[in-house]
Design goal:
heterotrimer, A mainly alpha, B alpha/beta, C alpha/beta, B: alpha/beta, Rossmann fold, six-stranded mixed sheet, 9 helices, 10 strands, C: alpha/beta, eight-stranded mixed sheet, four-stranded parallel sheet, 14 helices, 16 strands, globular, disordered N terminus
């Protein structure tokens, strides 16, 4: 926004000065080119959201696959450009989309928004890990620009033909989508499916087919964006995948449903970014030398804009949606069992730490610290159903606090808690009006902000790593790795007990109530925002504490550990472990830290031309993604899955016990889907031509506006 | 002084008016009914009165105080409670806990008394007769039981005005009768009750004042007898006689 | 003597890896940070002399002297590996048995790390070294037991601790975040002869000896002076761009301070996003300001989109880049947009390996023992360090101890890896001042300075023939205002990091 401000301020001078004016026009041209890319990327997101109800975090990854496939066809195999494009956009990408829909998304009926979000993050992970297996790091990747990169001068700046083609394609996409989604039966059906799948089925639609079509279309758009942008950024997996994050702001302006507004959003975003990059260079003289606001913010314009746009969205309407019967169960913890579990954990850790090798101690200590960070998600996400993609960023702030003010005393950890909680308030106050995916995006934007604007400040981190002194507890030094490991287990245990007590008490009940029916809570007099704020701040405080402890493991606070993208595996593994369970956090944390160990001891043997060590290394790298995708099967996570399995075995062996108390968690749930599915009855009748004509007549009426109000 | 007033409330959804200049009121000590065919806008009106929907025009007053812009939790704190057409129980909590949460919330915003939460819950349980299933998880209750729990939950907050959205839906004849008895008792105690219902005979039996909505507009209001004979009401429900061009 | 900037390179390495942020891993086109002086640069010999992927063009290089593989010699160095009678040997120290010496190499290419594939060349080189040395008989008969430990950047400490438990020494490794484990290494008494030491905590650490040492508070301005001399009009309006990461900014500040001290005036110091997609405005702005000299501090991949934008805008300043850009993947990733960009190098150009027997032999060894090896500078650096270590161990005979090793390394005051690198003084940890300027031409590099004919007097110097080795080639860096005293950061025995 400051870029725009600078522009506004200097407009009079600009218009007077010819060269300044031409410079301004030049930046505008760059902005328009960038806007085209952002629009194409965002449109795919919007299409997928509008037609599947899901914000596809893996969108950029599909784009990345598209770009690499384009390289494969055009550069590696030398096929001509246009046929390759057609094959990718009309065959390969849609097939990938259908595959994703069928394998991953199908199983997600009846799960909560948290699980859906996490599954798409898991898909993102999997694609990122799979791509390098196919396209290894030994090659140099580049793709030729269209028309050999020749350029033409517009408004005093050089614009390549490739960029002009991109603009034309963006406009074409806009027109095409408008036509498809509003003026064709398929498009309307695609939009209907998301509103009510069973209902649309009863009305003769085939939700499975339109779902598949939606994902095919979304994938195609993603691949298109990936291919078009490939020649202007670093051609590697991460760069191609996460460029789409810059376009999120555009999609959010469109409220994830309106293509017109997305278009506008893309233009505004790109222009502001261009002006910012062009004009913002010098920090004001009164700023301390080590505080660089201008340069850091100019690289973070898309996320700053995302935050601004999110703040401007009107408060989400509370909706009465009936009992939310999702497949996630929040088990009822028992305090006695918890104490036993915690005690055992500390005992086991104490024993094991004595026999472990020094390197393993560090690995598993990091796992315990990660588990503490993941504990922060239990009240927030597990009990409260809110998504946060910023826990590691809060952890990073905590790590910074311990490094700066720690010096061995508990003050450091206290500072970590306070600073993280304060940051939590900052994020929560504006963001908590938002619900579901918007909150997730707000926290992600915050995470990026911290990574790009806060961490690079030399005022805070003169070098990228800050040394950390471990706590000196009442004269007892925790410098020894074994002692520290036990200390971590103790902290984890104390926090677990605290969280369980919370859960069993009034606050925990309120959180559950809020998750089950926010509308009912509001009509009972509960100020939802205040409650959400409380749990968010609690959660960020725990994450900050965890971060301070994590830094203590390696005795170093390293900003890379807490970068924006690091938030994703933390959420992923916390949910995979079981986000409503403290034991789930433990499992998630330990797994996340130890995946790399998996292939360490496997010997390198050649089997069928594949090296075994490499194979297992890749498998373990892929594991978090695959586990996350499997959440569709059991959204309650690994721990719950295991205990269900164990209980089933126990019952099979000993018969379901005659409990005095009926175990409330084991009562049968009401079925989620209609008992007899129309499709299972084999009923199907195609519409006759007259009926179709009648529907078309109806469809052309302002159905669009009717549907629009269903936006979040 | 009516406990609750809606004055010329209008609501627009996309291209059409869901409510147009609707005016009605709820008096203390009486059961007021709101009926109308499907899609007439009854739930929308409810949502406007409870704060889940903003009107484009019109006002909502509680005890004469304009609460039109107030969020739901503020209205609740002024003494309004409601139940929902599609049950909005806290599914993962037990029936007891559903009431307990309500009582704890009430304590949080003061409510002005020192009655402990447990006592409130107990008295609601007794009043409603929930004892047999009170420790069951809410999402395994039968519809009848669930409706009672919702009512109990609303009562825990000691509302002055109680809005019930299709409370008899899914109940059998005995349950409906039982429900009606409770409501009559509450009205006698001074509570103002507004009930939306499809079960027209029930409404005729319980309510002393009835409002009729059709296509977003108030087409009739008055005591049951007046409504029963009202031509417009009959047409709204049964359609116009053939040839009248309705 | 080649001057290297491990610190700088490391910092750049950092930049790249940060780009990729953590666990979301990504494959990065191999080895970006070559630099760190020495040896055969440009992994994978792009075209130019020596041909194709392997510098080795079979039989000896004609005309430049020693044919490859002279008896018992690696270039000018006596090969430290050879047979011996181990019957009287005992286990003389940790990691040493009668017949074996256990060593570890640490690097970062883990598939689940932030930058999968990075610095794979280090592992490949060390694997080849170990096999080659063992085939020759080991060191005085004791065979090498090499463990490759992959830190995946973030887990350096864990690998050091694992090595502490089992190994005699760390050899030939490179940890981008070696500061995380430097103190642990010193605390457990583990000697370290890394291919490259990256952070100040490691470069200044006890028990650490590099084949090409570096210093964080000095900057080699030989290339800077060359630019000034060749393009005197360009230095008045200079631009130094950096990627928005603290490591890149620190490094860019060092560059700016050094160049300013040599007479450059910077009119533009913009920050760019990681994987910047919109270079247009910055390029246009520099053009409007009349910028005539430009440098970029980032990972080498980032310069390609910038070069494309510069071409589209017809913006052609003098461009001189730091050593990490001397990686043949850089020109291969362009289509001529970067033609004329200068890159400094402190290593012998791989394109001319046929003129350097040690380089030739290195490639032959690599080809023979690890044929799909990644060829990059770091691999060469690792190999040179391995030779340094092996030479010291050989002198210990049967009594191989850590103290002995340290003593020998401390007393090694001349090291050139048989010709793989310019001479340095590992014991005293001083750096060399030599450099070569390469130029991007199409999809490969060509030598720009010193040229054997046009710059004959510089070319034929006594210190390192074929490179420029000027006197007075350093500036001391005083301030980046960070208050961090690099000199005090090294991990010391009995101390904890500050």
């Amino acid at each position: 926004m400051t870029g725009l401000g600078a522009v506004m301020a200097s407009l009079p001078a600009l218009l007077a000065d010819q060269s300044r004016l031409s410079e301004f026009l030049g930046f505008t041209v760059f902005g328009i080119v960038l806007a085209a890319i952002y629009f194409i990327a965002a449109s795919g997101l919007v299409v997928t959201y509008t037609t599947s109800g899901m914000f596809n975090f893996a969108h950029g990854a599909v784009g990345m696959i598209g770009a690499f496939t384009y390289w494969q066809l055009v550069v590696s195999w030398g096929w001509p450009v246009v046929p390759s494009l057609l094959i990718i956009l009309l065959v390969i990408a849609p097939l990938l989309g259908v595959f994703i829909e069928r394998v991953v998304m199908r199983g997600l009926q009846g799960v909560s928004e948290v699980t859906r979000t996490v599954v798409s993050i898991a898909l993102l992970f999997s694609l990122i890990r799979v791509a390098p297996m196919i396209w290894g790091s030994k090659n140099t990747y580049k793709v030729p620009a269209f028309f050999a990169g020749n350029s033409v001068e517009i408004a005093g700046v050089g614009v390549t033909y490739h960029q002009l083609v991109t603009i034309a394609i963006a406009i074409g996409v806009a027109v095409f989508l408008r036509w498809l989604l509003f003026l064709t039966r398929l498009g309307v059906a695609m939009r209907a499916v998301v509103d009510s799948r069973p209902l649309s089925r009863l009305n003769g639609a085939r939700p499975e087919r339109t779902s598949a079509a939606s994902w095919a279309l979304g994938s195609s758009l993603a691949a298109l964006a990936g291919i078009l942008v490939a020649e202007r950024i670093v051609f590697d997996v991460v760069a191609l995948t996460f460029l789409v994050v810059n376009a999120y702001a555009a999609a959010v302006v469109g409220r994830l449903t309106s293509l017109t507004r997305t278009f506008v959003g893309a233009v505004v975003l790109a222009l502001v970014q261009s002006y910012g990059q062009g004009y913002l260079q010098e920090n004001p003289a009164w700023l301390p030398k080590d505080l660089d606001v201008v340069n850091t913010v100019s690289t973070a314009v898309p996320v700053v804009l995302l935050l601004v746009v999110l703040l401007l969205i009107p408060q989400a309407r509370l909706r009465a949606a009936g009992i939310q019967r999702s497949r996630e169960a929040v088990p009822h913890p028992k305090i006695r069992l918890t104490l036993i579990g915690v005690g055992s954990l500390v005992a086991v850790v104490a024993l094991v730490s004595l026999v472990m090798g020094g390197d393993d101690r560090i690995t598993w200590s990091k796992g315990l610290a990660l588990a503490i960070i993941m504990l922060s998600l239990v009240p927030l996400t597990g009990y409260g159903g809110q998504i946060s993609l910023a826990q590691m960023s809060f952890a990073g702030l905590g790590a910074y606090a311990v490094a700066t003010w720690g010096d061995g005393s508990p003050v450091g950890l206290l500072a970590a808690v306070v600073i993280a909680a304060a940051a939590g308030v900052l994020v929560a106050l504006p963001a908590l009006r938002l619900s579901g995916i918007y909150l997730a995006l707000a926290t992600l934007a915050f995470a990026y902000f911290v990574e790009k604007v806060v961490f690079p400040q030399r005022l805070l981190f003169p070098t990228a790593t800050k040394p950390v002194k471990r706590l000196n507890l009442f004269g007892l030094s925790l410098d020894d790795d074994r002692a520290y490991m036990v200390f971590l287990a103790v902290v984890f245990g104390l926090l677990t007990v605290g969280i369980v007590l919370l859960r069993l008490g009034p606050f925990g009940r309120r959180l559950q109530a809020m998750k089950d029916s926010p509308a009912a809570c509001a009509t009972l007099g509960l100020n939802l925002t205040r409650t959400k704020l409380q749990v968010f701040v609690l959660s960020s405080a725990i994450a900050g504490l965890g971060g301070g402890l994590y830094a203590g493991v390696g005795k170093a606070a390293n900003t890379i550990d807490y970068s924006a993208l690091q938030n994703l595996p933390v959420l992923l593994m916390a949910v995979a472990g079981g986000v409503a369970l403290c034991s789930g956090a433990l499992v998630g944390g330990l797994l996340l830290a130890s995946f790399g160990l998996g292939a360490k001891s496997i010997p390198s043997i050649e089997v069928l031309g594949v090296d075994s060590k490499t194979f297992f290394t890749n498998l373990f790298a892929l594991a978090p993604g695959l586990i996350g995708i499997a959440l569709g099967r059991n959204p309650n996570g690994i721990v719950a899955g295991m205990s269900e399995w164990a209980r089933a075995k126990y019952d099979a062996r000993f018969g379901a016990g005659a409990d005095d108390e009926v175990d409330l968690d084991r009562l049968p749930r009401l079925p989620l889907e209609p008992v007899l599915d129309v499709e299972h009855m084999g009923l199907f009748r195609a519409f006759s031509a007259d009926e179709v004509a009648a529907i078309d007549a109806v469809v052309r009426v302002d159905v669009g506006k009717e549907m629009a109000h269903a936006a979040p | 002084m009516p406990l609750l007033d809606a004055k010329e409330v209008s609501v627009r959804f996309g291209g059409h008016m869901a409510l147009l200049d609707v005016t009605m009121s709820v008096e203390p000590g009486r059961i007021t009914g709101l009926i109308g065919p499907n899609g007439a806008g009854k739930t929308t009106l409810f949502n406007v009165m409870t704060g889940l929907q903003d009107p484009v025009r019109g006002r909502v007053l509680m005890n004469g105080i304009d609460v039109t812009g107030s969020p739901p939790h503020e209205r609740s704190q002024r003494g309004m409670a409601r139940t929902f057409q599609r049950l909005e129980l806290f599914g993962s909590l037990t029936a007891y806990e559903n009431l307990q949460v309500a009582a704890e919330i009430k304590r949080m915003w003061g409510g002005g008394t020192s009655v402990p939460a447990d006592e409130r819950v107990e008295s609601a349980i007794e009043l409603i007769g929930m004892r047999p299933f009170v420790h069951k998880r809410a999402d395994v209750l039968t519809t009848g039981q669930a409706r009672l729990v919702e009512l109990g939950r609303a009562l825990v907050t000691r509302p002055k005005v109680l809005l019930l959205d299709e409370p008899a839906s899914g109940l059998d004849a005995d349950e409906t009768e039982y429900f009606g008895t409770i409501l009559k008792g509450l009205a006698k105690a001074g509570m103002g009750i507004l009930i939306v219902e499809h079960d027209v005979p029930l409404v005729m039996k319980l309510c002393s004042q009835i409002f009729v909505l059709d296509f977003g507009q108030m087409i009739a209001s008055g005591p049951p007898a007046a409504i029963q004979g009202n031509q417009r009401v009959i047409e709204a429900y049964l359609g116009a006689p053939a040839g009248s061009g309705a | 003597m080649r001057r290297t900037f491990h610190r700088r390179r490391a910092v750049l390495a950092f930049a790249s890896l940060s780009l990729l942020a953590t666990a979301c891993g990504t494959r990065v086109p191999d080895a970006d940070f070559a630099t760190v002086g020495d040896g055969l640069g440009g992994g994978g010999a792009s075209s130019g002399g020596g041909g194709g992927g392997a510098v080795a063009s079979g039989g000896g290089a004609s005309g430049s002297g020693v044919a490859s593989g002279s008896e018992g010699k690696f270039g000018t160095l006596d090969i430290p590996c050879g047979p011996g009678d181990t019957s009287s040997y005992t286990a003389t120290d940790k990691g040493v048995t009668k017949d074996t010496i256990a060593i570890t190499t640490i690097s970062d290419p883990a598939a689940d790390g932030p930058k999968p594939g990075i610095d794979q060349g280090v592992f490949d080189s060390m694997e080849a070294f170990s096999k080659w040395c063992n085939e020759l008989g080991g060191i005085n008969g004791r065979k090498l037991k090499l463990t490759l430990r992959d830190a995946g950047i973030l887990k350096y400490k864990e690998q050091v601790l694992a090595a502490c438990a089992e190994d005699f020494a760390l050899v030939g490794g490179m940890g981008i975040l070696d500061n995380l484990g430097a103190q642990d290494q010193v605390d457990c008494g583990l000697p370290n002869v890394p291919g490259v030491a990256v952070n100040p905590e490691q470069t200044g650490a006890d028990l650490t000896y590099q084949s090409l040492p570096n210093l964080a508070w000095r900057y080699n301005v030989g290339p800077t002076d060359w630019v000034k001399q060749r393009f005197p009009d360009s230095i008045q309006k200079a631009a130094a761009i950096y990627t928005n990461l603290s490591v890149a900014k620190i490094q860019s500040d060092r560059l700016a301070e050094a160049y300013t001290k040599r007479g450059f005036t910077f009119v533009s110091r913009p920050a760019a996003d990681i994987s910047e997609a919109n270079w247009g405005p910055k390029v246009s702005d520099m053009k409007n300001k009349g910028v005539t000299f430009m440098s970029l501090t980032s990972s080498f991949e980032e310069v390609v989109p910038l070069a494309k934008a510069m071409k589209a805008q017809n913006f052609k300043p003098v461009v001189e880049l730091e050593t990490n850009y001397y990686n043949d993947k850089f020109p291969k990733a362009t289509d001529g947009e970067a033609d004329g960009f200068f890159v400094r190098s402190h290593t012998w150009p791989l394109e001319e390996a046929d003129k350097n027997p040690a380089a030739q032999q290195y490639v032959e060894i690599l080809t023979k023992y690890k044929k799909d090896a990644v060829k990059e500078f770091l691999g060469v650096q690792a190999f040179s360090s391995a030779l340094l270590w092996a030479t010291a161990v050989k002198k210990l005979g049967a009594n191989v101890t850590r103290d002995g090793l340290e003593r020998e390394l401390q007393n090694t005051h001349y090291w050139d890896g048989g010709g793989l690198q310019a001479p340095s003084d590992p014991g005293a940890r001083t750096v060399t001042a030599c450099f070569v300027i390469m130029k991007v031409e199409g999809d490969h590099f060509v030598r720009e300075y010193p040229l054997p004919d046009k710059d004959a007097d510089v070319y034929n110097n006594k210190v390192a023939k074929g490179m420029a080795c000027p006197d007075n080639a350093f500036v001391e860096l005083t301030g980046d205002g960070s208050g961090v005293d690099y000199r005090s950061l090294g991990a010391k025995k009995g101390g904890t990091p500050k």
